C-alpha cells in the first residue's frame, strides 16, 4: 500500500480529462494536479522549451511527494518521455496506451491522429502505432486551435466557431477513410461531440486521457501501490496563472466544481 497522492500535470486544463477518469477508476486515491496555465499552449513551442517546461512541472509534483507522475499532455509525452523515465517514481504518459487502444479498435486499419503541432511533428503516435503493427496506416493532423478553444470554454458543436475550426482540420482525416481517431491531446475530448459529428457515424474516438488513466491505475494495482482502504482522499489543484476562471472551465472538464491555487514555479 502507498498512501501518497498521484501527480498529474498538463500545459493547461486539458489534463483534467485524465483526472476525471482517475476519479472513476480510483475513487479513493488522492491527487495533485498542476496546470501550467500561465504558459499554455505547449504545442506551438520548440522541443527545447517544451522539455524545459516539462522538467519544471515534474519537479513541482515531486515536491508534493507524489508516488507516480502522469504527463496528461500529448505534447510533453511526445517530447520529454526520456525525462520522465529518469524520475524517482513511476512515470506514465498518454502515447503508448492510446496507441494500443487505437490499434485494437480499428477494423479497416486506418487511424487518424489529432494533436498539437509539436505532437504531430514529433511523429510519436505514428511510431508507437507502427511498432505495434507496421501495416497500420496513420493519418496525422495538427489542430493548433483546439487548445485555445477549449481553454476558453468553446466546446459546443452548435457554436459556429467550433464547427468551422473542427470541419477545417478534420476534412483531410475524413477524406483518408479512417475508422478510428486518436484525440492525441487531453484537451480534445471536450470537443468529442463536434469531432464525432464531423467524422460521421462508425468512427471510433480514442480518448488519450482515459487510456493513460487506465494504464496508470492498472500499474498501481499490479504493483500493490494503491492507497490503503479507508484513507481520507484529498485533491489539490494548482495553476500558474490567475485562478479566477479555473473553477468555471475545470467544471467543464470534470463535471464538478473545484478550487484552484495559483503558484509560482522557478522558470530557469
From TrEMBL:
One of its GO terms (molecular function) is glutamate racemase activity. One of its GO terms (biological process) is cell wall organization. Substrate binds at residues 10-11, 42-43, 186-187. Keywords: Cell shape, Cell wall biogenesis/degradation, Isomerase, Peptidoglycan synthesis. It catalyses: L-glutamate = D-glutamate. Pathway: Cell wall biogenesis; peptidoglycan biosynthesis. Its EC number is 5.1.1.3. The active site is at 73 (proton donor/acceptor), 185 (proton donor/acceptor). The keyword Signal does not apply. Belongs to the aspartate/glutamate racemases family. Provides the (R)-glutamate required for cell wall biosynthesis. This is Glutamate racemase. It comes from Acutalibacter muris.
Amino acid at each position: 500500500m502507498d498512501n501518497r497522492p498521484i501527480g498529474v500535470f498538463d500545459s493547461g486544463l486539458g489534463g483534467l480529462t485524465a483526472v476525471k477518469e482517475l476519479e472513476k477508476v480510483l475513487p479513493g486515491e488522492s491527487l495533485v494536479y498542476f496546470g501550467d496555465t500561465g504558459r499554455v499552449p505547449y504545442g506551438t513551442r520548440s522541443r527545447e522549451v517544451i522539455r524545459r517546461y516539462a522538467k519544471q512541472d515534474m519537479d513541482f509534483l515531486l515536491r508534493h511527494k507524489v508516488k507516480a507522475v502522469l504527463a496528461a499532455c500529448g505534447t510533453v509525452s511526445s517530447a520529454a518521455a526520456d525525462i520522465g523515465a529518469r524520475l524517482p517514481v513511476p512515470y506514465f504518459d498518454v502515447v503508448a496506451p492510446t496507441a494500443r487502444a487505437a490499434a485494437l479498435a480499428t477494423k479497416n486499419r486506418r487511424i487518424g491522429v489529432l494533436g498539437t503541432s509539436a505532437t504531430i511533428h514529433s511523429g510519436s503516435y505514428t511510431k508507437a502505432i507502427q511498432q505495434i503493427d507496421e501495416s497500420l496506416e496513420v493519418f496525422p493532423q495538427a489542430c493548433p486551435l483546439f487548445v485555445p478553444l477549449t481553454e476558453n470554454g468553446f466546446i459546443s458543436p452548435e457554436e459556429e466557431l467550433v464547427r468551422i475550426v473542427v470541419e477545417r482540420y478534420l476534412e483531410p482525416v475524413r477524406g483518408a477513410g479512417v475508422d478510428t481517431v486518436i484525440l492525441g491531446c487531453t484537451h480534445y475530448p471536450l470537443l468529442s461531440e463536434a469531432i464525432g459529428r464531423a467524422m460521421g457515424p462508425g468512427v471510433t474516438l480514442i480518448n488519450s486521457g482515459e487510456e493513460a488513466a487506465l494504464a496508470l491505475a492498472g500499474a498501481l494495482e499490479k504493483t500493490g501501490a494503491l492507497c490503503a482502504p479507508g484513507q481520507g482522499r484529498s485533491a489539490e489543484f494548482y495553476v500558474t496563472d490567475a485562478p479566477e476562471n479555473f473553477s468555471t472551465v475545470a467544471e467543464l472538464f470534470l463535471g464538478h466544481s473545484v478550487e484552484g491555487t495559483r503558484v509560482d514555479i522557478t522558470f530557469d
